[in-house]
Amino acid sequence: MFSGDTRKMGLRERKKAKTMALVQKHALRLFREQGYKATTVEQIAEAAEISYSTFFRYFAGKEEVLIRDNYDPLLISTFEAEPLGLSPLQALKDAMLSEITKLSDEELETMRERNQLIYSIPELRSAMLKNMTGMTQLLAELLASRTGREKNDFVVQTLAGAVVGVNISVMLHYAEHLDADFGTLLGEALDMLEQGFPL
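== TetR family transcriptional regulator ==
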């Protein structure tokens, strides 16, 4: 996914988000210069001017530098503030698009570069799918809380999975089409989901 705005976070969360963004920035530069496989955690930590042990306070490994972001807390708070009159899918769509509009051009370009690497390296694709499984569970919890259903309800799980699937397709398209606008793509894709994908 993407890093998101830090304005709604507390001081500790903002500091963590800035450190994560700094590490990701240097990691991407190193990946560009010498390749993903040739880049080590030690090199990333040195470039970001943090210790090796500090790196692992933020990321479980090198692949997480590309997979992990700070989007979930922002999505949760924005979704919970959406009007109750909206359908669960409409509320989720509005929350996701609201956060995307706060991203700078630099953040969007970083997201595109991360996605390009993720889709081009097999071990990163595997890590991304694991991350998306967690995202599906998060969305199921949000949808369940709004609808009064259980998070393991089949309908709730299916809708959460559909939204994650849409997001994956948008990420792939955005990574491959340099002229595409991520927010526009996601909005159109979620509209199609809402309309039942009329073909």
